[in-house]
Amino acid sequence: MTKGVLYSLAIATMALGGAATAETVAPEKVEIVDMEVTASLTGLPGDATVGRETFADRKKGNCLACHANADLADQLFHGEVGPELNGVADRWSAEQLRAIMVDSKQVFGEQTIMPGFYTMNVGVNVAEKHQGTTILSAQDVEDVVAYLMTLKEN
Amino acid sequence: MAETTIKYTMMAGIFATSLGGAAWAGGPADDKLVIDDELEITTRVKAPEGHPLDEVISGWHYRTDETRALEADSFQNPGMLYVERGEEIWNTVEGDAGKSCASCHGDASESMKGLGAAYPKWDEKAGRPLNIELQINKCREDNMQAEPYKFDAADQKSLTTFIKHQSLGMPVRLDLSQGDMQAWWDKGKEVYYRRTGQLNMACANCHEDYNGNYIRADHLSQGNVNGFPTYRLKQSAMVSLHNRFRGCIRDTRAEFPAAFSDELMALEVYVTWRATGLSVETPAVRQ
């Protein structure tokens, strides 16, 4: 069993025990340590099926803008700015993928073009309607992480 | 690029190749632009000293075969209609002084030749650089006693296109020694590398680091200005440079500055310098 599956099981068990106390971590409070965010941002497991849609949705993740992904071959126009995400779960753990999603700059370095999807570390002059918000919600991030964990080749 | 980023990019590269994934055919097309089989256009040129890239490449190379062909044939280039309209305006009397552009400048093919390749230019009285659009407005107010054009008025775009077109094929070359041009260049450079918006991206992220790559369906070019105003097939209209700047900034989910503001004028000075040596292509055709 891979680390990711073990991890989802652990979360599932936790969720069963304490769904009522689950609390969402605010973007400023998320700690990235050693390129990892260890716990679910919402205390709940992600839904990979929803995550697949969030990944492709131009108004949400729009991940296809930069990443090709064979699992979404039915969608036109995969970008090539970032690496292909086929088999990405063989290369990164769920904890690392969560860190990449939250604030890629803290994993890849300040220079990366990849936006941080759950961070207040943003550029200047943010458009009014996006001020004080993150690109994705905490649960969106969990859903996409769960989806990325299904992208295995080995 | 930060060292960690390079490491990851390299790692990613190795993964991608080992997966044997079919990436799109990126990079500039290997082709030559000759308009109407007679005018050779310089679309690739060695970068000037201090430029971050080795070679300056026109956006023409990043477009499809069909789009490139449209620009090579002036009968098919939809932007040529704007050149014709611009010529009409050039010869039309407007304003209380009873003058047209031609009253003072005569034949544009002589008086305007090469001019568009050297703008923005320092204006001593204004104490700032002027681009063609603002120079037109200055003439309208001071010499014609006519109203200045509003940003992106149809006539502003046509007349600007007509004037730039008189420099077709001539190399872009700014004189940064005039007035405070250098300080405006410096400020423009700052804007170019400054990350904006919720997506936290700078011009350089897309046009310097990733030109030649597809971002979704768009093939990223170096973002050069030598073809402006540009005919955009997507919009079926001429697009001014400041409109393009604003669109790119908006795409980072940022508020965009006003057209002709100090910020965008500084950006125009700097980005025009980045296109040094490329031929003026106005009206270029883009997707």
Element order of chain B: H for helix, E for strand:
HEEEEHHHHEEHHHHEEEEHHE
- Here the CATH topology of chain A equals Cytochrome Bc1 Complex, Chain D, domain 2
Share of residues in strands of chain A: under 5%
- For this structure, what is the CATH homologous superfamily of chain A? Cytochrome c-like domain
Tally of structural domains of chain B: 2
Kindly provide the radius of gyration of chain B, computed on alpha-carbon positions and rounded to a whole number of angstroms: 20 Å
Largest sheet of chain B, if any? 3 strands, mixed
Name of the top-level CATH class of the largest domain in chain B: Mainly Alpha
Query: What's the CATH architecture of chain A?
Result: Orthogonal Bundle
Q: What composes the largest sheet of chain A?
A: none
- What is the count of helical runs of chain A? 6
Give the strand order of the largest sheet of chain B, numbering strands 1, 2, ... along the chain: 10-9-11
* Total domain modules of chain A: 1
Low-confidence stretches of chain A: 12-21
Average pLDDT reading of chain B: 92
Helical fraction of chain A equals 25-40%
Distance between the termini of chain A: 12 Å
N- and C-termini, Cα separation of chain B: 30 Å
Rg of chain A (C-alpha, Å): 15 Å
Kindly name the structural category of chain A.
mainly alpha
List low-pLDDT spans of chain B.
1-23
Key traits:
heterodimer; A: mainly alpha; Cytochrome Bc1 Complex, Chain D, domain 2; 6 helices; B: 287 residues; alpha+beta
